[in-house]
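Task card 7
Instruction: Convert sequence to structure tokens.
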Amino acid sequence: MPDRSAVLAEDETLLLLFPPLQAAWARRGQALPVPLSGWNDRRVLFGAIHVGSGHRILLAQKRQRAEEFQEFLDLIAWHYRGWHPVLLLDENSSHTAEESEMAAEDLGIEMLPLPKRVPKLNAMDQLWRRSKQTISANRQYDSIDEHVDRFVDYVLRLSPTEARLKAGLLSEDQWLREYLDYHR
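Output:
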């Protein structure tokens, strides 16, 4: 990689107004009624974590299409101006769209696809999972915007070390260990 490269793990997550129910109490042998009504409002949260420093960039959008991903690419390019951003990401259609690939090239962002169906290789995916357990599971917010605000606030308030730990980047068997050790 060129000097002044910034390696970032990128991923998206879906936040829902109706929370994922992971735990609840009910009488033994009886199903717990979970009343739902209306449309389950949602937001897509684009995110990237710098694998070395733990710096995070987040962008909430209403959809996950190529146009929204390209807005996120613009944000990454702005934050890492003067650097060579390298994104580790899955092969979602918003990433592989011709317009997205051209936008990344124009912005000087290199996109490296991760193997299919192996989310544990993506540090951002791991950070999403652990953050959802803390902020989203079993909690009903008054609005989807409140949910997004609290989720973003939680992720950005993590110290760089906490974020890297939750993302699995500090694990001894982390597949990026050699790169991370070399760049200390």
